[in-house]
Amino acid sequence: MVEVATQHAQELNAKNVQIFHSSFDDIDLEDESVDVVLSNGAINLTSCKESVFSEIYRVLKPNGKLSFADMIDISIDEDSCSLVEKLSCCDAQEDWANCVAGTMRENELIEGIKAAGFYDVKCTGHTHYSTSDTTQGATFKAIKTPSDVLRKKHWESIFKRSDHTKVLWHQSSPKKSYELIENHHQDKANIIDVGCGASLLVDNLLENEDNTITLLDTSKSSLEIVKNRISNDKVKFICGDILNFTTEKKFDIWHDRAVFHFLLSKKEREQYFKVLDNVLESTGIAIISTFKEGGPTQCAGLDIVQYNNQKILEELPSQLSLIESEEYTHVTPQGNNQEYIYFVIKKTSFL
Ligand SMILES: C[S@@+](CC[C@H](N)C(=O)[O-])C[C@H]1O[C@@H](n2cnc3c(N)ncnc32)[C@H](O)[C@@H]1O
After folding, report:
1. Same fold: 2-145 with 149-350
2. Any idea where the domains of the chain sit in the sequence?
């Protein structure tokens, strides 16, 4: 197929066409690099639709469009088997080639696309094309929800529906963060706690009356919890996403506990360090704590990236340097251990 398509492109002398061999659950394209994804009669040929839609989500730019035509399952029997059952019973190559084995019902497909992070998901029509008594052609379209919007929705629902003192990351005393901040900055400091949640760190930091503290979180509800707990004009609250954060202000200390590790794409991690570098004083320090390699693989129902010294060094841009790291065991409110690692980072020019 790749050879034939390449030949066609050459015959047309089409210079704006790139054809490459790739699996569509592992597309060889950068994150957020594509405006529109089109597909015709292909997605039903894969057994794992979830990874295909999440890969399409990854390569599309925010609000990028997905438009595809495919076969759907129109069998009358409402109790007909699910895709997983179908895959175990109809594994004959013929069923696959006829676009029968991998088909899903229209509503199942729509739900799967929404779950991958798309909005305005619609079946835009049915075609007269059919490959069996139980299949029919259909067209679909959807738009990629920007990742900051998904994050906000996810975290807002967590802080709205959970007791924040029972969530796994809760600490009754955030002593490791506090100790590292104290060790590296005894004087009056301008501190930002990014992805602060409802953490009690701010309460500790206010014990030093000279500190001024900015709390940034994507969840309004988490900030409300802190606002109801403390009333102090040395604390500024910002509801927003770290990756979009801009300010004229510079901070002596950037603190992040259990936030950076949620950034799964390279592009997002690059943007994180760009923001950090922009807002950190030239003599400032950044304290970032993540799950350690070998620690948990998920947090708050989301996948995370585990780190060790080597892995964080691979992420740091040249203007930022790792000066220290320390492993830390967090005991969850339920009494289980979670392995974290703290990184202390400085501007390279001020080492
Ligand atoms: C696991 S909790 C950690 C909360 C707090 N740092 C602590 O140690 O208790 C992650 C927090 O980061 C926030 N968050 C996640 N991604 C964010 C982003 N990109 N921008 C701003 N806040 C974010 C969430 O709303 C949540 O409050």
Report:
1. yes
2. 2-145, 149-350
Q: Give CA–CA dist 273/278, Å, rounded.
A: 8
Residue 262 near ligand 1, beta carbon < 6 Å: yes
Regarding the beta carbon of 196 and ligand 1, being less than 6 Å apart is answered: yes
pLDDT band at 325 (very low <50, low <70, confident <90, very high): very high
Provide mean pLDDT across the span 203-210: 90
For the Cβ of 287 lying below 6 angstroms from any atom of ligand 1, the answer is no
User: What CATH architecture does domain 149-350 belong to?
Assistant: 3-Layer(aba) Sandwich (3.40)
Q: Is 155 in the pocket of ligand 1 (CB under 6 A)?
A: yes
pLDDT tens for 63-119 read 999 999 999 999 876 555 565 555 555 555 666 666 677 788 999 999 999 999 999
Task: Classify 2 as helix, strand or coil.
Answer: helix
Q: Give helix 220-229 / helix 147-161 axis angle, nearest 10°.
A: 40
Q: Quick one: what percent of the chain has pLDDT higher than 70?
A: 93
CATH domain 2-145 topology: Rossmann fold (3.40.50)
User: 261: Cβ below 6 Å to ligand 1?
Assistant: no
Residue 160 CA to ligand 1 center (angstroms) comes to 14
Are the C-beta atoms of 198 and 222 separated by less than 8 Å? yes
Q: Is 213 in the pocket of ligand 1 (CB under 6 A)?
A: no
Q: How far apart, in whole angstroms, are the C-alpha atoms of residue 305 and residue 293?
A: 8
pTM score: 0.88
Ligand 1 atom at shortest distance from the alpha carbon of 174: 8
Whole-angstrom Cα distance, residue 90 to residue 47?
A: 12
